[in-house]
Amino acid sequence: MSILVIADHNNETILPATLNAVAAAGEIGGDISVLIAGSGCDAAANAAAEIAGVSTVLVADADEYTYGLAENVAPLISGIASNYSHILAPATTYGKNIMPRVAALIDTVQISDIIKVVDVATFQRPIYAGNALATVSSNEAVKIITVRSTAFEPAAASGGTAKIEAVPVTGEAGLSRFEKSELSKSERPELTSAGIVVSGGRGMQDGANFVMLEKVADKLGAAVGASRAAVDAGFVPNDYQVGQTGKVVAPDLYMAVGISGAIQHLAGMKDSKVIVAINKDDEAPIFQVADYGLVADLFDAVPELDKELG
Amino acid sequence: MKILVPVKRVIDYNVKVRVKPDQSGVELANVKMAMNPFDEIAVEQALRIKEAGQADEIILVSVGPTQSQETIRTGLAMGADRGIHIEADQETEPLSVAKCLKAVVDKEQPGLVLCGKQAIDDDSNQTGQMLSALLGWAQATFASGVELAGDNAAIIREVDGGLEHISVKMPAVITVDLRLNEPRYASLPNIMKAKKKPIDQMSAADLGVDTTPRLTTVKVEEPAARQAGIKVGSVSELVDKLKNEAKVI
Ligand SMILES: Cc1cc2nc3c(=O)[nH]c(=O)nc-3n(C[C@H](O)[C@H](O)[C@H](O)COP(=O)(O)OP(=O)(O)OC[C@H]3O[C@@H](n4cnc5c(N)ncnc54)[C@H](O)[C@@H]3O)c2cc1C
Ligand SMILES: Nc1ncnc2c1ncn2[C@@H]1O[C@H](COP(=O)(O)O)[C@@H](O)[C@H]1O
After folding, report:
1. Which entry of A18, A99, A232, B161 is 20 to 30 Å from A35 by CA?
2. Which of B 131-190 lie inside 8 A of A, CB atoms?
3. Amino acid A186: pLDDT
4. Region B203-227: what's the mean pLDDT?
């Protein structure tokens, strides 16, 4: 097997979900290469070369890859696809955007969001918001796969000594242009890789009340997340959304505060090790998945929790 | 300009799905079906573009069993102009759906395709990107803002780190995210009107597309259920349990 992992990176550093995709590649077994498509991306390439288990880092360094636009990056990958038995990308918004375009360019079906490698051709993936798990097997010559990061322990970021090779660049497609990004700035850990996540829902009532949760999060070294309802209502930015169509998290501790526990929300957090729910409605469905449930008004319980944590 | 909106018939998002005892799939018989929620958002966006005078016809396309026509009717009742039903099995793969859609695009020559970002049954998140590749068009996925201006569209995308603004050349494929708009309800007069709107019928084979799945489903199973937990009586009990029993803080 010869496996190519598409790195999600920002030219400087490798984003953590890439390490989980390398781990999935390791479970398939074989020679693992990592592709860095970017510009001025030496630092990211050097970091990729240190990932344990990687033998080669391919670098495509050109202006057209700066912002990871699918129309430019997909032809780069489809052009080298026949050298590999599997091409994996993390199921981040970057991977989800690019990989189906690659798959269609080489007339191949894609397997999205795998959570288990059964064998080199067989993979498990959640469907229906994780209410069913499908095991599928593929005969395609090149298997195009995205990897759910929470399902694979990350590969070690250091210890590897891969060689770095340049690959021919494929040019500007001229179809789309990056204008600007508005990235949420936070000193807190990143949501999808945090050990503890504290999330708020519609019960928080407004954005200002999230300060209460942030205080608790900071005492625990936690990331802050939210339900769709809290994002839709404008309490917090879109990138806080946990769920079927938001981010998937599986921390050691997940605290759901003022969240009812709709299946679409559970889809994004029910693989957390320990779940705590604080809700004033003792029949809220979130209590069916919570290890520790507290029936209380969050406006009493959260400040008290803040105090208890000292 | 014509706008094409692919709409998928899926199990209603409120239904708790059940896996079939023989593990061949999920139970679809006698289950409430509905338009994929993201596709309602795509239909709504198409209607707003038309209402702003930037499009003159909205065509809905659904690939699936005969009942997919009900899904097309739902969108016609929201205000779309006509439908195309491409007969195929319930379990189509995104690549073959994208090929069917490409054949329709070649025939109808729309200036824009608005898809959902994800079908909530297979959770694939592939079809729009694949269609865009097959057409050689620009793609704008996970859109929470769409502004058409002549030969370009200004798009705001929801990405992992926040928001991204891009500009794409038209014609383009745009896949829509939850916060793009709030879909309207069909009014009674519009539901009546929709009954008379035309739905063309054809098969995938008519379009030269083979929809036989390329992936083999080995089995479909229920995820492991979580152990039932306990209710704690106070915040201090909660903190104690987290420290000394679960040992997570
Ligand atoms: C296509 C689609 C995709 C979706 N994707 C997602 C997704 O990715 N993520 C997601 O989260 N949702 C998603 N949803 C939405 C989901 O169905 C629910 O609507 C949403 O999760 C509800 O959010 P909530 O629990 O915050 O709000 P609600 O359901 O309104 O619950 C609020 C809870 O707060 C409690 N509460 C209120 N006041 C207090 C108080 N003072 N103290 C304590 N408790 C209080 C209430 O008892 C209630 O249980 C999706 C829906 C659709 C249709
Ligand atoms: N069978 C289908 N018929 C019509 N449109 C579809 C079909 N399958 C997928 N789509 C469109 O593609 C989007 C993404 O679906 P998917 O790639 O399956 O997650 C949906 O929101 C629809 O807009």
Report:
1. B161
2. 131-134, 137-142, 144, 154, 157-169, 172, 177-179
3. 87
4. 95
Number of domains in chain B: 1
Q: Which of A92, A135, A139 sits opposite B219 (nearest CB)?
A: A135
Residue ranges in chain A whose pLDDT is less than 50: none
CA distance A6 to A145: 10
Q: Ligand 2 atom 12: the closest Cα is on which residue?
A: B127
Q: Six-digit token pair at B106?
A: 């070649």
For chain B, say whether A292 makes contact (Cβ under 8 Å): yes
CATH number of the structural domain spanning residue B42: 3.40.50.620
For ligand 2, atom 8: residue with the closest CA: B8
Q: Is B249 within the bounds of a domain?
A: no
Please report the DSSP string for A11-66 in residue order: SSSB-THHHHHHHHHHHH-SEEEEEEEESS-HHHHHHHHTSTT--EEEEEE-GGGT
Mean pLDDT of B120-138: 98
Q: How close is the Cα of A264 to the center of ligand 1, in Å? A: 9
Residue A64 structure tokens? 């057209």
Residue B107, H or E segment: helix B94-108
Q: Has residue B13 been placed in a domain?
A: yes
Provide the domain limits for residue B65: 2-244
Distance from chain centroid for Cα B58:
16
d(CA B46, CA B113) in angstroms, rounded, equals: 9
What is the reported pLDDT for B156?
Answer: 98
